[in-house]
Write a structure and sequence with these properties.
By secondary structure, the chain is mainly alpha-helical. It has helices at residues 19-38, 42-62, 72-92, 105-127, and strands spanning 14-18, 67-71.
């Protein structure tokens, strides 16, 4: 199936992304979606799940190739959502555990926020013109 999930984007450029980076970005999208959902932000959860679908489509379309092509907009949107979610974790106390009882999840949440920020930086770096392994296409 080749129909895009979010067909309207201002920036139509595609960039090649290696398989390992795609994997990290899918993982980040899943974590952002889980945090958003568990903390009552259904709009962000829905948006990031659309992005995860597009990243998964890039993996599927790579068909065994070591890289897939991803719209720049997907990478930029994921970076924005990952950074916003990390901010919510750090500033607003968003947590993966919604039980309301403290039992050590603070360390897990702090680690997740740091990883989200690192993967947001990865997504932005992949968008940069001339980035290693990420030359602009289209």
């Amino acid at each position: 199936m080749s129909t895009p999930v979010r067909p309207v984007r201002v920036d139509q450029r595609m960039v090649p992304v290696d398989g390992q980076s795609l994997g990290w970005l899918v993982m980040t999208a899943a974590q952002v979606g889980k945090y958003a959902y568990l903390n009552g932000d259904s709009r962000s959860a829905s948006h990031v799940l659309d992005l995860a679908t597009e990243l998964g489509a890039a993996l599927a379309q790579a068909d065994g190739s070591p890289e897939g092509s991803v719209p720049v907009g997907v990478l930029e949107e994921l970076a924005d959502l990952a950074e916003a979610t990390a901010d919510h974790v750090e500033r607003d106390g968003w947590s993966l555990c919604d039980c309301g009882e403290p039992h050590g999840e603070d360390n897990v949440d702090a680690g997740a926020a740091a990883v989200m920020r690192a993967h947001a930086a990865l997504a932005r770096a992949l968008c940069a013109p001339g980035a290693a392994g990420s030359q602009e296409r289209g």
